[in-house]
Each structure stands twice: as C-alpha cells, then as structure tokens.
Specification:
Helix content: 40-55%
Shape: elongated
Number of domains: 2
Length: about 150
C-alpha cells in the first residue's frame, strides 16, 4: 500500500496516481511523467500540488514525416508522368501490305501507358497535398509559439 503525501489516503501498489492527482511513479506508458521533485507545481514551503499525469510529447516538434513523404511522392509522380507520357512506347511493329514494315498502336499498351500516367498524376497530387499540410501545420505551430 502507498500513502499519498498530499491527501493522506492509502492506494494500491499498482496504481500510478492517487485520486487527488498525485503521481506515485516517475515513468509510465506515456513516457516521462513529472514527480514531486521535478514537478513545476512544487511549492517552496515543502508542500506540493497534484501533478497531472501527462506526457511531454506536445512540447517537442513532430518528426518531419509529412515533408519527406510529400517530396518522395511528388518526385515519384513526376517520374511516372514523364515515363508514361514521353518514354513509354505503345506501338508495335507490323508487316504491312507489300512487305512494308510499319508501326501500329496497340490498345493494350495504350491502356498501360494511360494507367502509368494516371498513377503518376495521383502520386503527384498526394505529394502536393502532403507538402501543403506540412506547410500549414508549420505555420500553425509558429503562430501558436509566437502567441506564447
């Protein structure tokens, strides 16, 4: 049994926090949890207020996953559009009349060319959306930090 120094109630050994809000343990599933010693709620007269069971994740900036995936998706989309639109050849050789060799369009290859080009367009649009979302979240974060 643990005795809470704030309210004086007894609590089970496995509970991380008292009913009044006092944190018994210094680590948990959320990462760093402030204790009495490291709490910003500690008073100079030896008494403490209840510390909330929170994580410090909100203070650290998130990893730059959005811009990285945005640039990768945009580059992949441009490469697929370039290949499908300019490099892919949807024609096949055919021996025409009187033995003259010519090239004719193959409908199956044209469909493949169209699918490659449209996949490139889709990747490009997704990449542009991710880059836009990254810029918007960065601007919101800067605005909030400027307000503080």
């Amino acid at each position: 049994m643990l005795n809470c120094p704030l309210c004086g109630t007894d609590a089970e050994d496995h509970v991380p926090q008292c009913r009044c809000g006092f944190v018994f343990r210094s680590s948990g599933p959320l990462g760093h949890v402030p204790t009495i010693e490291s709490s910003p709620h500690a008073r100079h007269d030896g008494q403490t207020r209840a510390t909330p069971l929170t994580s410090n994740r909100a203070e650290a900036p998130p990893p730059p996953a959005l811009p990285v995936f945005g640039w990768i998706s945009t580059a992949l989309g441009l490469a697929l559009m370039f290949y499908g639109g300019l490099i892919f050849d949807p024609t096949i050789e055919s021996s025409g009349m009187y033995g003259i060799v010519s090239r004719i369009n193959n409908i199956g290859l044209q469909q493949t060319q169209l699918i490659i080009f449209l996949a490139g367009c889709s990747f490009f649009v997704v990449g542009a959306a991710l880059l836009s979302a990254s810029a918007i979240t960065k601007a919101i974060r800067e605005t909030k930090s400027a307000e503080l």
